[in-house]
Write a structure and sequence with these properties.
By secondary structure, the protein is mostly beta strands. It has a single domain, classed as Jelly Rolls. It contains no helices and 11 strands. Strands 1-2-11-4-8-7 form a 6-stranded antiparallel beta sheet, with no helix packed on it. A 3-stranded antiparallel beta sheet has the order 3-9-6, with no helix packed on it. The chain is globular, with a radius of gyration of 13 Å. It holds the Pfam family 2OG-FeII_Oxy_3. This is 2OG-Fe(II) oxygenase superfamily protein.
Length: 100
């Protein structure tokens, strides 16, 4: 579901990528695991703006989760998703680090 999701790539390299993402009202992220060809994929998601209702991040296992705002997890190992955003937008600053 891509209901006008806006993604701005701030940095993209072999080991590190940084994205600024806006998820609009009505959007949800279905359960998935991020596939990579080799190594480990860590994601550090910083929720800049939480929606007024919905849009909760759910992951099988986190390295840490600070108040639902700063979340570090292995996106290549653990299934994760975001519930439907009922009201408002969700702004996310996402750091993806690949470790061989």
């Amino acid at each position: 579901m891509s209901l006008n999701v806006k993604i701005r790539i701030l940095l993209h390299s072999k080991r590190l990528s940084i994205y600024l993402v806006r998820y609009p009202q009505g959007h949800k992220v279905i359960p998935h695991v991020d596939m990579i060809s080799e190594g480990r994929l860590y994601k550090l998601n910083c929720v800049l703006v939480k929606p007024k209702a919905g849009g909760e991040f759910i992951c099988e296992k986190n390295v840490f989760n600070l108040f639902g705002r700063v979340i570090l997890f292995r996106s290549d190992l653990y299934q994760h998703r975001v519930s439907k955003i009922e009201r408002g937008n969700r702004w996310l600053l996402s750091f993806a680090l690949t470790q061989n």
